[in-house]
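As a next step, we paired sequence with structure tokens, yielding the entry below.
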Amino acid sequence: MLTIARYTLLEALRNRLLSLTAIAVIAMFGLAEFIGELSITETSQVQAAISASILRVFSITITCVFVISAVSREINDKGLEIILSLPMPRYRYLAGKLFGFAGLSLLISVMAGIPLFLYAPAGPVIGWCLSLCCEQGLMAALSLVCLLAFSGLPRSFLAVMAFYLLSRSMEAITLLSAGPVLTSGTVTWEFMRFMVTALALLLPDLHAFTRSDWLVYGVEASEIPAILIQTLLYLTVLLSGGLFDLYRKNL
């Protein structure tokens, strides 16, 4: 597992993924300074919030793209078949990949959080980086599972992005479904509310992850443990699904 994780991380370094991240962080720093010149009041808070929002989306996107492209290339080059032909359980391959992607997520989240120390206190920035690492780990695991299930790069990426956008906006959808502007009591309304409630229970609450307002108002003590518990729970579910799909494949 450690060998697979090591070479997964080396592949990211050889693809200059961290160099691309560094360029994006530097560009984001320049944009934040430009925004600071335009803002009239609360300059640091505005810079921190906008920088955190853009860096979060960039980090998630680049992680998902790398995971899907790297594993897809490994499958097309028959590297997966060679690895699984070795005398080792298949769960070690999946666990090794997840360990490697977790290490990459940690590096990217640390790099993304470096410029935020200029605009926010250290405590909220560390909490933001930890939450971003957890969020990237979840999306990396989902990308790996989707690729093993769909066996196609475009379909896997679309499924991952749809899952991410739905999870991010689930709280707003829940509030809209229970709003007074909708006609209540009808069969359609009851069915819609049931579906929204079921989806909200099944999907991770990514709205609570890596929030930009932490850098302005601080992080509550109960938020980070809740994020860690959610991460462990959904990683277990995704790992179980990935193992089921991997063991049923005839490679």
